[in-house]
Amino acid sequence: MLSSQGDSAKRKSLHGHWSSRMAFVLAVTGSAVGLGNIWKFPYIAGQNGGGAFVLVYLVCVIVIGMPVMMSEILIGRRGRRNPIATMELLGKEEGSSANWRWVGIMGVFAGILILSYYSVIAGWTLAYVVKSVSGVFAGASAAAVGTEFDNFVGDWRLIGLSHTIFMALTIFVVARGVERGLEQAVRFMVPALLVLMLVLLGYSINSGYFGEGVAFMFTPDFTKLTWNSVLAALGQAFFTLSIGMGAVMAYGAYLPEETSITGASVAVVGADTAIAILAGLAIFPLVFANNLDPADGPGLVFFTLPLAFGQMAGGVFFSTVFFVLLAFAAWTSAIGLMEPAVAWIVERFNRTRAQAAVMTGLLIWFLGFGSVLSFNVLAEFKFLAGTIFDNVDYLTSNIFLPLGGLLIVVFAGWVMCRNSTSDELGSSGTWYRAWRFLARFVAPIGILFVLASAIL
Ligand code: PFF
To answer: Which of 27, 118, 244, 250 is most buried by its number of CB atoms within 10 A?
Structure first.
């Protein structure tokens, strides 16, 4: 069915609009760049053998991540509502079914689950700001840094407290709304983070083990690659780009009509990938220089970086700034994780943003204790993928996000008519054709194939 351009052009978001294209790009970049790039990417690459994983991840980002990102933005801008209502509205408008709302519902749910553990790790970065300022790491040995980490995460009250503080900060920004809250937080964070990553990279290059780090990241050894690591690479591509769960769709709803979706997507994907690769290049040489194990898991950056900073001139300062920036990066991502749920509650139940943020935030805070306890009291309580934390992470990154992404590209590529998508993306040109080919064939087949191979 043809949908009229008139309807969608008249639609306005209830939550206001971004003040400029730059504001949108910054906000989506702020949501994309987070713990996923600096905390998760290195340890997952480490656990999955390095080079081959990194290569698969890059392929996933380009041939699957890019078209999903563009599809999410275009759907969001066309619907101009929360992801559930947008999918329902467009499902009907495009002559399909209101049941497409389930994509939005799954996204809201995924965001809540992801934030429940994301906030716990973000809390660690807050605590590491305090530890850095107080000079705990100055000149510390590898063993001392390791013990510091083990003692910290071993105490559920400490990490429960930092999780609580982080959730309070997130609720605060989300409650303030699109322009006042979201934009201001990201304006300086991404550039500052980039500068600090370069400082770390400089240190890493001089560590004497840069060659080993580069070889580990870029020499693919395909014998180490299982279908499960391919799925992990796909999941990481979705996680790091914040796609597959409606966050980018929710942000797209506030995007002005004239902004180029393709341009914005290229900028976001480029910045996000660059920061992940920089983080890997900074971290792996330090891992090898200090005889650590790249497969060490979620503690990896919390051992390597404090250790490196502890040995640098001005280390107390750099370490503090680094963890402050990482906390900021996590903060701007956490906002994106809450946005679909909050936008939905505001529109559906007529609540204020503040009420919706507090309600959603309290639920997430409570669920977060499953992950808090996974590092101490319930560390031995393992099922399926491991601890509660491991399971929530596996389920969301490796199942919900790819599945959400699959449905989103199928919707944009097959259900929406050509006129609607070309209205949003610009009708002619190589970019449109490339997007449509990737969205209709490459991305859906790729996602299905990887999901099926890893799970069946
Ligand atoms: N992309 C974020 C990161 O890499 O840390 C995580 C994330 C944020 C995922 C927002 C999903 C989302 F909606």
So the answer is: 244
| pLDDT band, residue 7 (cuts 50/70/90) | low
**397 C-beta closer than 6 A to ligand 1:** no
- Rounded Cα gap, residues 255 and 78, in angstroms: 10
Handedness of CA 394, 267, 68, 109 (dihedral sign): positive
Find, among 224, 296, 267, the residue nearest to 40 by Cα. Answer: 296
- Report residue 8's pLDDT band, with 50, 70 and 90 as the boundaries: low
Q: Using only the alpha carbons of the chain, give its radius of gyration.
A: 21
Residue 12 has pLDDT above 80, yes or no: no
> Rounded to an integer, what distance in angstroms lies between the CA atom of residue 405 and that of residue 386?
25
Q: Which two tokens stand for residue 189?
A: 């964070």
Q: Contact 290/307 with Cβ under 8 angstroms?
A: yes
Would you say the CB of residue 36 lies under 6 angstroms from ligand 1?
yes
Q: Band of the pLDDT at 1, cuts 50, 70, 90?
A: very low
Choice from 273, 275, 333, 339 to test ligand 1 binding pocket (greatest atom count within 8 A of CB): 333
Q: Which of 108, 182, 240 to mutate to test the pocket of ligand 1 (most atoms within 8 A of CB)?
A: 240
Structural contact between residues 79 and 104, judged by C-beta atoms closer than 8 angstroms: no
Give the nearest ligand 1 atom to 401 CA.
Answer: 11
427, amino acid identity: S
Query: In the block, which residue shows the tokens 């400089």?
Result: 202
Helix/strand/coil for 33: coil
Residue 28 contacts residue 242 (beta carbons within 8 Å): yes
Rounded-to-integer distance, Cα 191 and Cα 135, Å: 26
Per residue in 90-113, pLDDT tens? 999 999 999 999 999 999 999 999
Cβ–ligand 1 contact at 82 (below 6 Å) = no
Give me 393's structure tokens. 């992470």
Atom 8 in ligand 1: residue holding the nearest Cα: 333
**Token match 């983080």: residue?**
279
The Cα–Cα gap between 216 and 110 comes to 32
State whether residue 383 is helix, strand or coil.
strand
**What average pLDDT does the segment 266-282 reach?**
94
Q: How many whole angstroms from 241 Cα to the centroid of ligand 1?
A: 6
Instruction: With beta carbons less than 8 A apart as the criterion, state whether 46 and 224 touch.
Output: no
Q: How far apart are CA 98 and CA 92, in angstroms?
A: 5
Q: Per-residue pLDDT averaged across 368-378, rounded?
A: 98
Distance CA 26, CA 183 (A): 7
| Distance, C-alpha 87 to centroid of its chain | 22
User: Does pTM surpass 0.85?
Assistant: yes
